[in-house]
Specification:
Radius of gyration: 20 Å
Shape: globular
Number of helices: 3
Order of helices and strands: EEHEEEHHEE
Number of strands: 7
CATH architecture: 3-Layer(aba) Sandwich
Distance between the termini: 46 Å
Strand content: 25-35%
Structural class: alpha+beta
Largest sheet: 5 strands, mixed
Length: 148
Amino acid sequence: MHMKCRAGKSTSWRWPCRKNEMTTVVSARHHKGKTSYHAGVAAEENVARGYIGQGYALIAQRWRGRGGEVDLIVQQGDVFIFVEVKKSSSFARAALRITPAQKARIFAAASEFVSTKPQGLLTEMRFDAALVDATGQIQIIENALSDG
């Protein structure tokens, strides 16, 4: 078994790095994770502001149900729009990050959300993808997650 230390050197099986090197590797991963998290939150907030600017009502941000999480739920009239926000270096890369399993979780969470509404599963819904590129530009694709 080979592991890599901070310097990228491959070692035989022993504790892979000196303590300070391992701490640096873990710290770098933690920092990257925090940076990605905050970039995602900022992207969601920018997308939410865009929907609000177009007259939509923001119902929930990061709504979590038993089936999964929906990044944004907005409403226009009687229609609830469930928005998946994806940030990447380009719109194409962001779109590729929406997997079939993730779509299934979003559909499950949306079904759970509307089941609390007066019309239940007959509530009118739409599933949008909000793609954010490295420059912060936003591309909204309406009905992007719908099957068909």
